[in-house]
Amino acid sequence: EGLYEIGSEAFAGTLLRRFTFPDSVVKVGDNVLSDCKNVRTVHIGSGIAGINEPAVRTPTLEEFTVSGDNPFLEAVDKALYTKPVNDKRKLIAYPAAGITEGRVEIPSDVSVIASKAFSGMNQLSALLFEAPSSVEIIEKEAFRDAAKLNAIRLPDSLRALGDGAFRGCGQARELVIGAGLTQIGDNAITGVDRLRRIEVSDKNSAYSSLGNALYDKKQETLIRYPSAGDETTYTAPDGLLYVCDRAFYGASFLTEVSFPDGLRAIGNEAFAGCAALSAIHLPDSLEAVGTKAF
Asked: Is the Cβ–Cβ distance between 149 and 103 less than 8 Å?
């Protein structure tokens, strides 16, 4: 007792099996337990109001526990949450070794999934949302490099998807977007190398899908083309004006792409990783081509 702060990487690489943040600690740095390959349990005392997930990330972690006197945080089913406010709470961190049978279901009262909450968790293959879902925000890199996740199905309640939220989820074959999503961050679905199908709810006001690709609602902007689709040729629809950064990233099966008159701009690295691409038909209307677009 009496300890006020634990700095970044303070216990990195140690052989601890259980770690306790005492009640006196109110401030915690990042990566406190990085490379601690034996930690099974993390207990959080009464003084910590908030904690960044990277502070307690370890692949062997089985459960969180929290002091009953902590007014801000709680552990439920071994995971770490904020205490409910207006019947809603934030999922801060999930214990990697606590995932059973590859499956995680997000409780219906969770409104926010924190940055890096599931990042790098190769144990995760199925992500479910308990109905009715209340998740409105998935923060940046929340599921980044969850390499065995087999599908990304987002509930109607979701409004915002943070930068890199599902980046590197290379096994996911399907992306389903519900009615509520209006904001997709940079690289949120980059590196989803086996993506074959993208489907958007007809009720979504910001996005749409056509031919398994993701567009804005008016289909003037092509946001993402699936990396592992069946087609070797692609003809963009009339009315397309813009191709986003990395829109065709990793689409190694494509050999030919054609764009309509009216296309104005192609973003950075739009065709990076398209190893088989041999022909691109560009209209006279094209005004700008981004860095390393081809």
From this structure: no
Give residue for tokens 């190769």.
122
Secondary structure class of 102 (helix, strand, coil)? coil
What's the Cα-to-Cα distance from 199 to each of 173, 204, 212, 266, rounded to whole Å? 11, 11, 7, 23
Phi, then psi, of 26 in degrees rounded to 5: -120, -10
Predicted TM-score (pTM) of the model is 0.92
Q: What is the DSSP letter of 41?
A: E
Retrieve residue 212's tokens. Answer: 């398994």
Place of tokens 């977007």: 177
Reported as a single tens digit per residue, the pLDDT across 166-198 is 999 999 999 999 999 999 999 999 889 899 999
The sign of the dihedral angle between the CA atoms of 119, 124, 130, 132 is positive
Question: Residue 226 pLDDT more than 70?
Answer: yes
What is the token pair recorded at 208?
Answer: 């749409």
From CA 240, how far away is CA 264, in angstroms rounded?
Answer: 8
DSSP H helices, the chain, are none
**DSSP per residue, 138-204:** E-TTTTTT-TT---EE--TT--EE-TTTTTT-TT--EEEE-SS--EE-TTTTTT-TT--EEEE-TT-
Check if the beta carbon of residue 247 is closer than 8 Å to that of residue 240: no
